[in-house]
Design goal:
Length: 174
């Protein structure tokens, strides 16, 4: 792992944790009804493998303030790892936005049920709904912006995004 990749991973981690722990946003980040603004950053996993590690670490850091931190730090980070890896595998397509909705929508309610005694299906509906709102608004906007202007973010030209662009260009004939 190069220094450049480590720095990018660290930036993703700090950004995710800061958006989760920020006053005003923190109240939206935990519990059965949550709108975690930082989840929009998972879009970067579609473009940059460093985001997978960084977002996973950022989730762990952000979950330190969770009312169920003992469970949420390791398991929440694991859910982010799975969702981000799926997004990287899918690539920079709108369909990738469904990965965190499904993974967190089914996984987080398990923790809520065991730790806070929230009915599982209640948790599924509201966690998935909150995740879908964030990914369908902020996530979609960020995905479209990064696809169009990825160079502004200093993203590497190699990797899935570049391969996807090469395939699209080859299909168009140039």
């Amino acid at each position: 792992m190069t220094t450049r990749v480590l720095v990018r991973a660290a930036v993703y981690a700090v950004a995710y944790a800061a958006l989760t722990l920020a006053p005003g946003l923190q109240v939206l980040a935990y519990g059965p009804v949550q709108f975690r603004v930082a989840e929009a950053l998972t879009v970067f996993a579609c473009f940059d493998p460093a985001a997978i590690v960084g977002l996973t670490l950022g989730t762990a850091l952000g979950n330190v303030a969770s009312p169920m931190a003992l469970v949420d730090v390791p398991l929440g980070a694991l859910l982010t790892l799975v969702a981000a890896a799926l997004m990287y595998r899918i690539g920079p397509r709108v369909a990738a936005l469904a990965a965190p909705v499904v993974v967190n929508g089914l996984g987080v309610p398990v923790m809520l049920a065991f730790v806070l005694d929230v009915p599982y299906w209640y948790g599924v509906v509201f966690v998935a709904l909150g995740e879908a709102v964030v990914m369908g608004t902020l996530g979609l906007g960020l995905l479209l912006l990064v696809r169009e202007r990825g160079g502004l973010f200093g993203l590497p030209l190699e990797g899935r995004a570049a391969r996807g662009e090469a395939r699209r260009g080859a299909r168009r004939g140039g």
